[in-house]
Amino acid sequence: MAFDLTTIWAFIIAFAVFAYVIMDGFDLGIGILFPFFEVGDERDQAMNSIAPVWDGNETWLVLGGGGLFAAFPLAYAIILPATYPLIIAMLLGLVFRGVAFEFRWRDPGHRAFWDFAFTAGSLVAALAQGMVLGALLQGIEVADRAYAGSWFDWLTPYTLLTGLGVVAGYALLGATWLIIKVEGRALDHAYRIARPAFVATLILLGAVSLYTPFLEGQYWQRWFTMPSFLFASQVPLLTAILAYALMRALAKRRTYAPFLLALGLFLLGMIGLGVSMWPYVVPDQVTIWDAAAPERSQVFMLVGTAIILPVILAYTGWAYWVFRGKVGSEGYH
Amino acid sequence: MFDQLDALLLARIQFAFTVSFHFIFPAFSIGLASYLAVLEGLWLKTGDDVYRDLFKYWLKIFAVAFAMGVVSGIVMSYQFGTNWSVFSDKAGPVIGPLMAYEVLTAFFLEAGFLGVMLFGMNRVGRGLHFTATLMVALGTFVSAFWILSVNSWMQTPTGYEIGANGQFLPGESWAEIIFNPSFPYRLVHTVIAAYLTTAFVVGGVGAWHLLKDSANRHARKMFSMAMWMAALVAPVQIFAGDMHGLNTLEHQPVKVMAMEGHYESHPDGAPLYLFGIPDDKEQRLDYAVGIPKLSSVILKHDPDAPLAGLDTVPDADQPPVFAVFWAFRIMVGIGFLMLGIGLWSLVARWRKRLYDWRLLHRAAILMGPAGFVAVIAGWITTEAGRQPFTVYGLLRTAESASPLAAPAVAMSLLAFVLVYFAVFGVGTWYILRLMSGAPHAGEKGVKRTEKGPVRTAGITPGPTQNPGKDPDTLPSSQQEARDGV
């Protein structure tokens, strides 16, 4: 594995996608769980816990898409048409949700409608993201540098499973985020909701993990043959340890541990994904080097990214730091 | 074949629809961000609270417009891949990095300074807050810079090589790609357009409140500022547009033929058509009304200069003349109307009637949304005029689209139309509601409860169960004490 520019870019895109998943994941999760919160104070607290950060979170999606277009134009040109209805559904879901955020406060007369838009948009976006992941993993038909499959290739039992898995995972992130941010009755409720979300996530994660090796030759070899087995087997092992720790943390009503452990589960999922796919960006069809933009494009972008991305990260970290602590108690100063 | 054509047409309609919708908001944000910076600068310089009040008044509107620009922009960043995948693959190596810079810039701005600008007035020192406002204004510029560079490269491609697989690859110098021949003209013309658009919105809102109460000092101030802008900048814009047109004649002569409605060549001076119904099938302009020789005068500065027409261009390489011809006329017509309002306001000033000439105020209200119409019309002129190519002369639109079936595109187009009208309709209604409130002394900024967090962007958190005092309602002496904390 040579550490060339293309590999660096693959890691930058992977990082942007992961940053998006863990950050927008919890606020999409809160949207998914919204109907389970009591109308009034509990919903307001939940909304306020993500208000300062949600659209900063969402911008990582633009960065991921823009980055993929710039660094791996061929991958962008194959994956997006292949998952066309999913991408459109996700975008419209995010539009709906973003505007619901904006007008829930400003248009209290229709608050019930905006709450519905918030939940529906979040749910559709999360489901679509999970299904895009599944559609990618199960393979995309490519001919002559373009998508060559049919209209509904993205709709299979497997993609439904990955879609639901992401929905459950986001719900878990949302619930554990709330544990950090709310108090009083809302806090008890957050602990109560976190448990079924956790169980559902675990079951779906297990189902996807068991299903995946049967999809493609490469996955089976990666996971179940020596010597890669020695490395790959650490992933489910660590997942089991983290899952146990998360269960304990919920039982002991810890504040920060559940959220951090849930992030850990997502990180392991991402690593598992990398183990399965590397070095392909479209399984068995297009490697990252096939899809890569020429070196001049990569270098030119790397300059700006290397300067701006750390600043954005520092600022994001600072924003999260400023808004630390409970949302409804001390307020922010 | 027929299906292909259908899917292509639908994809083009979808792109036109989503990009026009999106473009409205940045066009407004670019101008408004600069106006806000001017207001805050004047407040700091003069200490006159009228500027602070106006700053806060327009800040609320800016917050909503900016948020809608971001939301509709997310769609744009995926639209190339979903509907124009072949174009993305072929042009990605060249324009992908420019777009990535645009995203990084917008992101940097949104993450960094918008929150301070929107909510930080009582939390950070005046100098720092003003810096944040300036950075937001600068950021909108830099975003426009990159995205217009992409658009200009598609119109006048330079600095590329053709690689294997028919991809465009960057050549030796990125500067040659970024600063392609039409870019400086397009950038100046578009940014001034954004300024004028904002000036007429501000002027329209000011006029509205003057009609209700001509003594309202805040409405007077905003109306006066907007009218100065109209009087000074509209002529500059007409000049910049003329320069841009000459540049287009040099690099995209066929586009100019369509703009002028010149189906025929004119070997000894071409007329300027004021009216006509272009008929692409018959290749002629019906019901034409023109001024002889004027087109040659404008384009060649010589009444007898020959001008080639579309009869020298194969049918397959011609843009749709009707759209280009009329969009261009609408844009130019609005430009001259803006100039007219600007001159009228100068007459009103000279006669000391700027604040009580009701007919002028009514005209200014009518012209309030004119900038948006002109901006969209200009966009249609340049984009439809680029047809039938995505990368001018090199890559055809028909060869750029994704391999999608027409029903898929039709469904997504329908979904976009429904959602956009619902969602942005509400947003626009809300902006209009904000504008209908009269600007007054002690204007509140973006509403926020004491408990509510400072936002990194767009929205205002709601009240918690025991809202504290809104810091904006503090007496000013206390506010000053809070500044610089």
TrEMBL record, chain A:
GO CC, one annotated term: cytochrome complex
InterPro entries referenced in this protein's UniProt entry, alphabetically: Cyt-d_oxidase_su2 (IPR003317)
Record-stated family: Belongs to the cytochrome ubiquinol oxidase subunit 2 family.
Subcellular location: Cell membrane
A Gene Ontology molecular function term of the record: electron transfer activity
Designated gene of the protein: cydB
Protein name: Cytochrome d ubiquinol oxidase subunit II
UniProt keyword annotation of Lipoprotein present: no
Bilayer topology annotation: Multi-pass membrane protein
Keywords: Cell membrane, Membrane, Transmembrane, Transmembrane helix
Top-level taxon in the UniProt lineage: Bacteria
GO biological process: aerobic electron transport chain
Coiled coil: none
Positions of transmembrane segments: 6-37, 82-100, 112-137, 157-180, 192-211, 223-247, 259-280, 300-323
Pfam families in alphabetical order: Cyt_bd_oxida_II
Origin species: Erythrobacter mangrovi
Subcellular location, principal: membrane
From TrEMBL, chain B:
Annotated GO biological process: aerobic electron transport chain
Region (Disordered): 442-485
Record keyword Electron transport present: yes
GO molecular function, one term: metal ion binding
One annotated Gene Ontology cellular component of this protein: plasma membrane
Keyword S-adenosyl-L-methionine on entry: no
Keyword set, alphabetical order: Cell membrane, Electron transport, Heme, Iron, Membrane, Metal-binding, Transmembrane, Transmembrane helix, Transport
Coiled-coil parts of chain: none
Subcellular location: Cell inner membrane; Cell membrane
Membrane-topology descriptor: Multi-pass membrane protein
Family note: Belongs to the cytochrome ubiquinol oxidase subunit 1 family.
Protein name in UniProt: Cytochrome ubiquinol oxidase subunit I
